[in-house]
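Structure ticket #2291
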Amino acid sequence: MKQRAAGRALTGAGLLGVAVVLAALNLRPAVTSVGSVLDEVRNSLGASSTWSGALTTVPGLCFAVAGSTAPWIARRIGVATTVTVSLALLTGGLLVRVLDGPFVVLGGTLVTTAGIALANVLIPVVVKDAFATRIGLMSGFYTGALQTGGALGSAVTPPVDLALGGWRQGLAGWAVLSGVALLLWLVAARTKPALAVSAGRPHSGGRSLLGNRLAWTVTLFFGLQACLAYIVMGWLPEVFVEAGVSRGGAGLLVGLISLLGLPVSLFLVPLAARSRGQSWWVAALGVFGLVGTAGAMVAPGAQPLLWSICLGIGMSVFSLAITIITLRARTGEETARLSAMAQGFGYLLAALGPFLFGLLREETGGWTVPFAMLLAVCAGQTFFGFLAGRPRFV
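Resolution: structure written out below.
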C-alpha cells in the first residue's frame, strides 16, 4: 500500500513538473510572436504607428498591473485554480485577438497578457511549494522554458504565417499549445491538492512587503534586469544594422542572445540555488553584460557576434532573478507577495527603458549617451542583484 502511494506521489510530482514547464513555454510566444509579424499586422489592419506602439506597450503594463492582483486572487480561489484561470485567459485571448480589427487585437492582447501576468507571479509559488527540495532544478527548467518559448515565438511565427496564408493563422496557432498546457495543468494540479489552498492562508498576518528593504532590493534587481533586456531586444538590431550588419544577420544575433539563456538556466541555476548565496553568480553574469554593452557602444560592427554572446550570457541573470524570488521567501504566501511586488514594480520600471533609450537617441543623434544609460542599468542590476543574492529572508 505504501509503495503504491509513493508511486502515485512520484508520478504526480513528475506530471506537475511537466505541466509547469509546458505552462512556462507558453508565457512568452504570445508577446514575441506579434513583434515578428507586426508590420504585416499593421498594414493589414490599416493601423497607425501609434497603435503599434500601444500594442507593444500593453504587455509590460499588463504584467505590472494584473500581476499585482495575483496574490489577492490566489488567497480566494487557490493557486491551482488561479493558474487554471490564467491559462484559460491566455488561450482565449490568443483566439479572440485574431477575429477582427485593431481594437479587437488590442483587447485580445490585453486578455492574453493578463493571463500571462497571473502565471508569471504564481508559477514560482508552485515551484516553491511543490518542489521544495528541487527548487534550483525546477527553476532552471522553468526559466529555460520561458526563454525557449520567447525565441520560438519570434522564429516560428513567420514561417507558419507564410505556410497557413496570413498573420491571423500564424498568431492563432499558439492557442493550440496553450490549450494543451491548460488541459495538462487541469490533470496535474489534481495530483497536488495542497496547491488549491497554498498562498491562500495568511501565515504572517498578510503583512505588506512595501516597507521591507530586501523586498525592494529584489524588486530593483528584477526591474533593472528586465529593463536591460527590453532595451537590448528592442534597439540592438537597429544598432547593428547601422554599424553595417545585415538586417537578417542582426535578427539572428538577437535570437542568439535569447537562446543563450537556455543552457545557463539548465546548468547554472541548480548550482546557484544549492549555494548558500547567489551574489557571486549574479556578479559573474553582470561582468559579461557590462563587457557586451561596452563593446556594442564602442565598436558594434567590429565584433557583433562576441558582443551578442556576452550580452546573452549576461542577460541570463533573468533565471537567477526568478530563482532568488523563491529563495528569499520562507513560505508560498510570501513567495506570492514578493513575486507580485518584484514583477509588478519591476515591469513598470522595465517599460520605461526602451522609451528613455529612444528619447536619448533622438535628443543626442548618436548612440553614446543611450548606451551610457544602458551601462548604468547593467551596473545597477549587478549591484542590487549582488545584495539580493545574500542568504536572507523577507
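Closing remark: The first helix runs from residue 2 to 25.
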